[in-house]
Amino acid sequence: MGRLSFGGRSTTIGPYRGWMVDLVSLASENNILSILPSAYYWVLEQHSLGSLFDGIPRPDGTVASLSSLDLRRCVVAREKLLSKQFQQGYTVGWVRWESEFSDNCTNSVQCRRQRGLILTAFLAIRSDNVAFRILCSTIALCECDFVLLAHQTLPRAIHAKVKLAKAPIRNTISGTSLASPPPMSSPLAKRQRTENASIKRSERWLDDGNVVLQAGNTQFRVHWSILALHSSVFRDMQGLPQPPDQPTVDDCPIVELSGDDPEDVEHILKALYIPKFHCQTTLPLAVVGAFIRLGRKYDFKDLLDSAVARIMSEFPATLKEYDTLIQLGGCMTIDRHRGWTIDSISLASENNILSALPCAYYRALNQNGLGTLFDGIPRNDGTLASLSSPDLRKCVVAREKLLSKQMQEGYTFGWTREASGDCTELELCRLARERLPRAFSDKPFLDAFSTASPDCLAPEYKLCRACTRHAIESMAAGRRKMWEELPAIFDLPPWGELKNDI
């Protein structure tokens, strides 16, 4: 049995795997709100982001899992806690470069250097709480430095000092309850079919057509020859004998396209009859999606290939192509709408365009905050562009890995960890290198493939020539290494094995 203190009162609870997650659910469902800040924090301290998404197996084989609202709160709050604890005036703000020292400090230079080591190292292992605690217990400051006490009590201090709420929390909320986040709509949501809706003719109704395609309650009169020319499926279908009771319209057989959206069919037929339509510089993602979905299903190979090429141009599989994309401000082969990156991820995931996913995931993380990824992005028509649960998990867990890796030695900003062996301004370069991690600690900034050159830094970040050259070479090598590992960071096979299964 364990004794746990919430709000100044102790309670005895029998601990088991997942018990804290169950406690959060119990408190949340019953509006026992005063214990939630502490309970959320304990959950974050004990469990990784991946395990919070997957749930914690209980001893009886069932799974303790958070509601979508509690999961969102924990994930978003974790990022705030990781940043806030290093800000001036909070738990570990003492490690900052500009923090004061004790009047009795015997070696301010050494203490400042050690503080910088802690801050830089933290940014490289932020996804591993245990490693950070070990780090803090092994880096010593001078005996007289007053920050030693805070240093020794770091894990407890975080809980005690971080401001989780601006006002006292009551255990009941009159007339209201904890609201759930808005429901996630399926990406590029299809309109619901109405069983009793009357049949209507589309604009694609050609009087000399000899076959009628029906999707939902919409019919299209077109030509077998055009369909067969572009699709092996329709070519084979045309050669099949028609049953005597085959329904017809104006003596044209009706071919029902089960499960296909009428808008998708309209886009395909428009491309077949008006070739310049799909040769435009940019196309709406809805059109690209139609080419991919129906291109796979009916083997419209040319349309499928052109659509996949558009996706790959926006989410390339090589660092060189990605750099070109960023330099051009985006490839612009797909019309932008609010949430288009999220919708592109869903389209690629659902249709096994796997080689586009690492870059697409990264761009989604680079463009959106965690709260936005959980809540979804309102499209222009009022629907929500939202990630599937597996894609959301991949993005959230990978973000922590990326934020850590980009600061590790051998990666993009690893040059901040050590000077060049030929450094001519050791102290000035050290101070310059410390300022960059400090900026990252204030607000997590994902820039794993930064193209900013260290020789163009602001004056306070200036390095000597040797360190500048070292930083440029280190950043270039680090970016390449990060790109090679990008699929693995998102739990995907290596680039060489990441094939489009279309």
TrEMBL record:
Annotated organism of origin: Mycena sanguinolenta
Protein name per the record: BTB domain-containing protein
Domain spans labelled BTB: 209-273
InterPro entries: BTB/POZ_dom, SKP1/BTB/POZ_sf
